What does this fold into?
Amino acid sequence: FEVGEILQIGTVVRDPDSGDWHMNNREFVVAGTFRTRDNETDGGRIYLDRRELANFLGDTHEYTQVLVRMHDYERDKAALTADLRHTLTTKGLIRGDYEGRSEVRTWEEFRGNLLGAIENERVLMGIMLSLVLVVAGFTVFAILSMMVTEKRRDIGILTALGATPAGVQQLFLLIAFWDALLGAFAGAVLGTWGALEIDGIERWLSRTFGVQIFNRDVYLFDHIPSVVQPLWVATIVLGAFLCALLFAAIPAWRAARLDPLEALRYE
It folds into this structure.
């Protein structure tokens, strides 16, 4: 809807004198619009003047839901929820806890099913990420194992010239160290940028290939939300780094145990 358009709203109200129910239709002029970026809220909620709303509903003063918005939700949600629950229960406006559920609920409690589904998806993403790390570790293992096999004669020459087994092992570990360090740094930078710009990237891909990747009419949001948590990023980067070094330790150990004479005869 645009500002100035006529909006027709109809509801069923009860006549206070006869007790009969009848239709009450009324036209309202759209005075303004709002956008919360939540499709369910944007598409199914309108705001009216309280007196106009009471008159439209038949001069009733009963309300089924009251929403409270806080300036600092994370800081004040627990205290304000407890205060509202105590005050409204004391005045008899609500029943208090009923069948284990309270009539005063935070946003997380009200959206518990949705948040539970999102948490399950996060767990699945964590499992998939773990599998990716294992595959990446095996890739590092395969590359270094092939390098040890191809450079077997060179390893023998280095050993004959005085290189110790510990030095040979450190050489291959150093190769894995720089591979892991550069890969983890590049992955952290590109991954963080991709997470922050995921909505713009999706829109560009959808326009380029003519395929709607994220259908905004199906999901709750009109954009792809993303939150980058530095602790999670650091944990993933550190895990990938350590995983690469762990899988590189076996080829490095094999290189250190090569017999110089056998290595020099290798063709």
